[in-house]
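Anyone? Bumping this.
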Amino acid sequence: MSLGLETLTSCFQGIIPATLYTCAADGTPNSAYLSHVEYVDPSHVALSFQFFNKSRRNVEENPQALVRVVDPDTQQGWALRLRLVRSETSGPLFDRMALRIEAIASYCGMKGIFKLLAADVYEVVSVSKVPEQPGQGPAASDRRGLDAVFTMRALQHLTERISAAEGLEPLIDAILAGLDEVFGFSHSMILLPGEQPRTLITIATRGYPENGAGAEARFGEGITGLVAEARKPIRISGLMRGMLYAYAARFRAEEAGWCPAERRIALPGLANPASQLGVPLLVRGDLVGVLVIESETPYRFHEDDKQTIELLGAYLAMAIRNAVLQEASEAAEPRALPAPPPREAPAAAAGPAGALELAYYRADDVVLVDGEYLIRGLPARILWKLLTIHAAEGRAEFTNRELRLDKTLQLPEYKDNLETRLLLLRRRLEQKCPALQIASRGRGRFALVTGAAVTLVERP
Amino acid sequence: MIDAELALFLQQGLAINIGTRDATLAPNAAYAPAAAVEPDGTHVVIYVPVVGADAVLADLAHNGQAAVVFARPMDDRACQVKGTYVSHRPATDDERAIVRAQWDGFMQQLEMIGTPGESTRTWITWPCVAIRLRVTALFNQTPGPDAGARLS
C-alpha cells in the first residue's frame, strides 16, 4: 500500500525545520532539529549526517526513528516512523545533499565547516497526521498538480518566446522576461564565463534596482559559483534562514576583502531570498553560463521540477551558444541593416553640464568614469580603443570584425566571446555612464554615441 | 541546573518538542507551545496540548525518560533538555496566560524571519497537560561543530 509520501514533498523543502527523535540502546531518548529531510522514493527518505552525532549513534544501536515534518502550505504536521536501512557516502543522493549543504555554507562564509558526512537512508514504515498540528486548506495530495511550476506546458511557452528572439541580447532579455512572465520569477540573472579562469561575469539581470552587468562570481562561492563548479542545479528553499542571518555579516566582510570595493561590482541579489535556484547552462559538458533565480517567498520546488530544470538549462545553453556563434559568424562579414532605427541622443546630451573624464589604468586594466569604477578587462580595453579612435579620428562607427583583428585588444585566440563582452559593455554603460552608448548599426556593426564632452586620461 | 540566562532563553517563546520512547525503544513525540523553568532550575514544566499527549504520557508512565528540544527560529539557537518524569496534571487557567504569551513570542519570532504568524495559528495550543520533569542533562544543539556538546 502506498504511504502517500510522494504527496508530501513540499514538507521536505526545509521551509519549516523538521524534528528527529531517536532512542539509545540504554533507553535514553533524544530529540533534535533537522534542517532537511530528503525525499528519495515513495518509501524512503534520507537524513543528512552532519552534526547530530547522538542521533546518529542512536540509530546505529536502535534503527527506529521518528521524524516530524510540517507542510509549509497547510501547516499540517506529519509523523514519519522510520527505520535506518543504509548510509551512503558517495553516489547521486550523497552528491545532491552535499551540494545543498555546501551552497548554504558558502552563503554563510562557512564553506568547509558544514560538511555532509553521510546520507542516511531510512525506510518509511508509516505516515500519520500529527493531531496537535492540524492544517488548513486543501491537502497536499490535492495540490500536487499545482506544485510543479516547471511544467512541460510552461517550458513550451518559454521556448516559443525565446525562439522568436534574434541575436544574443534579445535572447538573453527574452529568457529573463519569459521566466518572469511565464513562471512568475521576477528576480533572475544570467552569468557567463569570465575572462579569468573559474570566474563568471553577470551579463544580464531582471528585477533588481541595478542591472549588475559586469558583477563577478568565483567558482565555488555562493550558489552561482557552486553551480558552476558542480555543474548541477542547486535549489535552496527557505531553509536555514537563521543561519543566513547569523553569518551574513561575516560573509559580507570576507566578500569585501576579496577585492577592493571600487574595483568590483557587487553581485545583484535579494537581501533575504527565501528561495534560490541555480541552473548550470551546459552544452556537451561545456559551461556556457549559469542562470540564477531568486524569490522572496519560499518557493516549493516540486520533485517533478528536477528533470525539467535540467532540461531548461540544456535548452537555454544551446540557445545562448547558437546566438553567440551566429553573431560571431555574421560579424565576420559586417553589413548594415536596411534602416537602423534612429536612437535617441544619450541622456546627458540634453543636460547643461555634459562633461566626463574617463581614465584608463593600464596596469589594472580598468576604466574609471569621473573617478568611479566602470569596467575592467576586455570590455575596458574595447571601450578605451573606441574612445581613443573617436578622439583621434572623429570616427564613431565600428565593426566587430576590426575589433577581432586588433591585436592590441588581446582577444583570446579561441572562443574570444567578443559579442558577449560588447553586450556587457553596453549594459554597464547604460547603468553607470548613460552619456556614452554602444548603439547597434546592423549585424557586426555598432556606433559609439557620446552625449557629453569626453576627456581621456591614460595612466600606467 | 538551568541558570538564569538559559531559563530566560527557554521561556521566551520557542519551537519546543518533547520526545519519549516506548517499551520497544520506538520514539514518540509531541509539540509543546510553552515551557516553564522552576526557580531553582532543577525542574521544568512542559505544556503539551491534550490532543497530542497520549503516546508521550504513556511512555512517561512506563519509563519516565524525556528529551525536550528548544529552538529559536531567528538564529537557530537550540538546546536539548533531558529529564525524568515527575508528574503530570491538567494545566490551570492561570497557566493559560503563560502558554499564550510564549506562543505569541514564537509567532513574533516567525514574523521576524519572514514567516507570517498566521501560518501556524491552526495548531492546537489549549487545553494542555502540564508535564513536570526533573532536569538530568543539558545539551547545546545550535547547528555547528559544537552541536551535541553538554552545557553543564
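Late reply, but here is one note on the structure posted above: The radius of gyration of chain A is 26 Å.
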